[in-house]
Write a structure and sequence with these properties.
Helices cover 40% and strands 13% of the residues. By secondary structure, it is of the alpha/beta class. It has a six-stranded parallel sheet with strand order 12-9-13-14-16-15, sandwiched between helices. A five-stranded parallel sheet has the order 1-2-3-7-6, with helices on both faces. Strand 15, helix 18 and strand 16 form a beta-alpha-beta unit. The protein is elongated, with a radius of gyration of 28 Å. The termini are far apart.
Length: 689
């Protein structure tokens, strides 16, 4: 017997959600009404009966997290935010998908209260949900490690609604496989099995048994069938409620609940038709729906008493949740002043004080920037306790493992190489780049820690949507991408990125950072960890490169200039006639070229430009000081040359690689492709001619 209380008012609230979805799409003329109509009882059950939340404080630490992975059905979530008093009003629903609205076509983190993450690319939300579940465990172990699992103020559940499209995207499989490996018992995935996509019946492209797939992953699996074997339709909210409660009792693995539905039910004529997926229903069908459920045949004719009921219920449930949570939180804070101070710092978006003083200073010599980053991370393990991260099975190559810290793993998943612990900080994503990116973004959006993840730069293509979503969401996810150019060498063109760095610079809001030596890596990490509203791509070399002597009198400037994106690394012997600009491993080519030009009586300034975005954010005066408008500039970067004139001015020439690489030793490829000191010198002379 179910413990669910479901009144006539609750049923009426569900119908309000259906009508709002239908009317909103009809008014704007576009959108996705069908899924929102049929999902209304499932979403209402979660918001009004199951999830802990506080509409007056949407970021309350004690809340459960909800992810609408089927982001096109944003109205499924918007209608619940309206009914439960999260700040959306009827005019917001009416302004769906219009300019400056709080109800855009897909949910956007940071825009609408109660939206935990930006979703839209199908399947990404499943990855986000896994990330939120991982963040919950890490937060408990970071701030309340002595607590019994399930009894900490940082423990909470994560709910996700996904559809057939999400299940077809590979990223959902990547993330779900990892979720099972991590035994994420606080994760509940509800799969809306309506068998409809834009092209119609999913059987034309999707025939697998998704339930069996999740059983094979190792999830706890249940099925609630609203269609009664496709005989009659019955919205079994009590059965679904019981399934969620049963899932909560399974704490050693994530839970998957397949709910078999009919898209658009109870539309009298169009339920089950793919036309309702992504188009307005039409006035006649909406009128028929309203007649079917007993609503006035007028746009947005909502019973205010029912809305008052749902909001009062949400407020009452929030009050009860706070009454149970607040005293426990205050007791935790009193008993853990240092951890409370850490939490306050992280929530306040502040890096540790004097971070640079806790990080390595590298002596002159030769070192790959990936190796330098690994050493910096070793120091950050102590200096920044909220930082954690790992790699898509490339930790040894990416140098992304913090020395001396355990892996974020159930203890029984430990290997001979990596010891697991619930609060571990080394993440093992497996060969799942796309899932890695979405998981990291959710951790960033959760806001209780900082995270990074690594792979080879060329494989950033597998996770291309994730830095874009991080930038769109204004969250500080750090992407560590190594093996940055043709310098990869013998692995050949499949592993040698040539177009990637410049293409990443095209993403608004993404900081693309390519340090020029080991000490620039240290400074880059400091700047990245002091930025809390922007993601960063840290681009690092496989091959060794010169670590410059930064001591006074050496001729080389302090690496502190990295924080400004670009700086004068080595000044000319006299008033410069040309500026040589290098990024990453090509800085040393610019330095060598400047020495040759100086020997020939041509004063040449060397500028290191590790981050174009940071540099462009500086004042015009500073930019002109570093790169005077009247001087010719020669940029050297082992990637495509397109774009440099747009970035640095018309009097800019570039030495780079406008073709795919080859399999040979890195120095050989640089020579054969003309990314050399002599090429830079020749280009500079031509620019001066």
């Amino acid at each position: 017997m179910s413990n669910l209380t479901w009144t006539e008012q609750d049923a009426k609230a569900v119908d309000i959600a259906r009508v709002l979805a239908a009317d909103a799409v009809e008014k704007v003329g576009n959108g996705h009404p069908g899924t929102a109509v049929s999902l209304a009882p499932i979403a209402y059950l979660l918001y009004a009966k199951l999830m802990k939340s506080d509409p007056s404080d949407p970021r309350w630490l004690g809340r459960d997290r909800f992810v609408m992975s089927a982001g096109h059905s944003s109205l499924t979530q918007y209608t619940q935010l309206y009914l439960n008093g999260f700040g959306l009003e009827l005019n917001d629903i009416e302004s769906l998908r219009t300019w400056d609205s709080l109800t855009p076509g897909h949910p956007e983190f940071g825009l609408t209260k109660g939206i935990e993450c930006t979703t839209g690319p199908l399947g990404a939300g499943v990855g986000n949900a896994v990330g939120f579940a991982m963040s919950a465990r890490r937060s408990r172990e970071l701030y309340d490690p002595e607590a019994t699992p399930g009894e900490s103020v940082f423990d909470h559940n994560v709910y996700c609604i996904a559809g057939d499209g999400c299940m077809q995207e590979g990223v959902s499989g990547e993330a779900s496989s990892l979720a099972a490996t991590q035994d994420l018992g606080n994760l509940f995935l509800i799969y809306d099995d309506n068998r409809i996509s834009i092209e119609g019946d999913t059987k034309i492209a999707f025939s697998e048994d998704v339930q069996a797939r999740y059983d094979a992953y190792g999830w706890h699996v249940q099925h609630v069938d609203f269609t009664n074997g496709f005989t009659t339709y019955e919205e079994k909210v009590a059965e679904l409620y019981d399934a969620v409660e049963a899932a909560k009792a399974v704490t050693d693995r994530p839970s998957f609940i397949k709910v078999t539905t009919v898209i658009g039910w109870p539309l009298p004529n169009k339920a089950g038709d793919h036309s309702v997926h992504g188009a307005k229903l039409g006035g006649a069908e909406i009128s028929a729906l309203k007649q079917e459920i007993g609503f006035a045949d007028a746009p947005f004719a909502i019973d205010d008493d029912i809305v008052a009921y749902t909001r009062a219920n949400a407020a009452e449930r929030a009050q009860a949740a706070h009454a149970a949570w607040d005293p426990r939180f205050e007791a935790w804070r009193a008993a853990n002043p240092e951890r409370a101070a850490l939490l306050d710092r992280v929530l306040g978006k502040q890096a540790p004080a004097d971070l640079i003083g806790q990080l390595p200073v590298f002596e002159p010599g030769s070192m790959a920037t990936r190796a330098a980053s690994g050493k910096v991370l070793g120091a950050l393990a102590t200096a920044v306790p909220e930082l954690w991260g790992g790699s898509a099975d490339l930790a040894g190559s990416n140098n992304t493992t913090m020395a001396g810290v355990p892996s974020f793993l159930p203890a029984d998943r430990s290997s001979e190489t990596f010891a697991g612990a619930p609060g571990g900080r080394t993440l093992h994503f497996g060969i799942r780049e796309h899932a890695m990116g979405n998981i990291m973004n959710a951790i960033s959006m959760d806001g209780l820690s900082r995270v990074y993840g690594g792979t080879f730069l060329v494989f950033s293509d597998y996770m291309r949507t994730t830095p874009r979503l991080a930038a769109l969401s204004h969250v500080p996810t750090t992407f560590v991408w190594t093996h940055d150019s043709i310098g990869v060498g013998e692995d050949g063109p499949t592993h040698q990125p040539v177009e990637h760095v410049m293409s990443l610079r095209l993403m608004p809001g993404l900081d693309v950072v390519r340090p020029g030596d080991a000490n620039e890596v240290t400074q880059a990490w400091v700047r990245i960890l002091n930025d809390w509203d922007r993601p960063a791509a840290l681009i690092l070399s496989r091959q060794n490169m010169t670590t410059y002597d930064r001591s006074p009198g050496s001729g080389f400037a302090s690496a502190e200039g990295v924080a400004r994106g670009g700086y004068i690394l080595k000044e000319a012997s006299a008033a410069p006639q040309v500026v040589l600009v290098g990024t990453g491993s090509e800085v040393e080519i610019a330095v060598a070229a400047a020495a040759k030009l100086e020997a020939e009586g041509v004063p040449a300034r060397v500028v290191s430009l590790p981050c174009v975005e940071w540099f462009q954010a500086e004042t015009e005066d500073y930019r002109d000081e570093v790169l005077p408008a009247g001087l010719p500039k020669v940029v050297v970067e082992a990637g495509v040359t397109v774009g440099w004139k747009d970035l640095l001015g018309a009097n800019t020439e570039a030495v780079g690689v406008d073709q795919y690489g080859a399999s040979a030793a890195g120095p050989t490829i640089f020579e054969k492709y003309g990314v050399t000191t002599d090429a830079v010198v020749a280009t500079a002379k031509a620019a001066l001619a």
